[in-house]
Amino acid sequence: MADTFSLQRVLETFRSSLSEKKEVYIKYYIAGWQELVAFMNSLGNVFSFISKDVVSKIQILENFLSGENGSHYVTIQSMVKYELENELVDLTKRGSHPESGCRTLLRLHRALRWLELFLERLRTSTEDSKTSVMCSDAYNESLAQHHPWLIRKAVGVAFCAIPGRDTFFDVMHVVALLGESLPLIAEVYQITEDLYAKNNLLELP
Ligand code: 1PZ
């Protein structure tokens, strides 16, 4: 389990996703997600319905990136501009563009907030803190608000299967790194959040 995941690698990929102009490269953003999927898979089958969803969203974005309009999908900024200017986004209800890059990335973006909140709890936790509680507190504060009842229930079941705090630290083995990766993940999150807010995209169906 230990060698399938490294927080260091997640950190490096998200770091590579930030350009000098503080734009976010989609290629590295999804590479960061791929690392997280590998980690989730190593935790067991209970999480496979979650990782399958992430994998399918990564795939949608990869297809845009390698498709004929790929040059517009280099950064999140260029994707938003391109899809909005060409009316490729369903803005209020699902219609002819149910799988736009914008709405797909928004799902991962919201999940990144969960990760940020969870890692922050893990970092400041004490020996008797429960990871399942940290997970669900972080979830209720972020993603849960966007999920229907059935998904929230399934997620609740998955949280019960989450390994304990020691395992997390063994697997990530880098308590110190947590302090370093958090601001970085938070920065990528905030840049995306501001961009989506500015363009009124935070509630895409
Ligand atoms: C380490 C343990 C992992 C805990 C994961 C906590 C987050 C729970 C997320 C539950 C997702 C449930 C399955 C899919 C739901 C989809 O309906 C939604 C909306 O997509 P749409 O239907 O609109 O296309 N998908 C999401 O919200 C994306 C969820 C991604 C979750 C990523 C978790 C990150 C794990 C990192 C591991 C350290």
From TrEMBL:
Membrane topology: Peripheral membrane protein
GO cellular component: cytosol; endosome membrane; Golgi apparatus; nuclear outer membrane; plasma membrane
Gene Ontology terms: biological process: negative regulation of interleukin-1 beta production
GO function term, MF aspect, one: ceramide 1-phosphate transfer activity
Reaction equation(s) it catalyzes: N-(9Z-octadecenoyl)-sphing-4-enine-1-phosphate(in) = N-(9Z-octadecenoyl)-sphing-4-enine-1-phosphate(out); N-(hexadecanoyl)-sphing-4-enine-1-phosphate(in) = N-(hexadecanoyl)-sphing-4-enine-1-phosphate(out)
Annotated Glycolipid transfer protein domain residues: 26-172
Keywords from the named record: Cell membrane, Cytoplasm, Endosome, Golgi apparatus, Lipid transport, Lipid-binding, Membrane, Nucleus, Transport
SUPFAM superfamilies per record: Glycolipid transfer protein, GLTP
Record-stated family: Belongs to the GLTP family.
InterPro entries, alphabetized: GLTP_sf, Glycolipid_transfer_prot_dom
Keyword Signal: no
Subcellular location: Cell membrane; Cytoplasm, Cytosol; Endosome membrane; Golgi apparatus, trans-Golgi network membrane
Record's keyword annotation contains Lipoprotein: no
Protein name, UniProt field: Ceramide-1-phosphate transfer protein
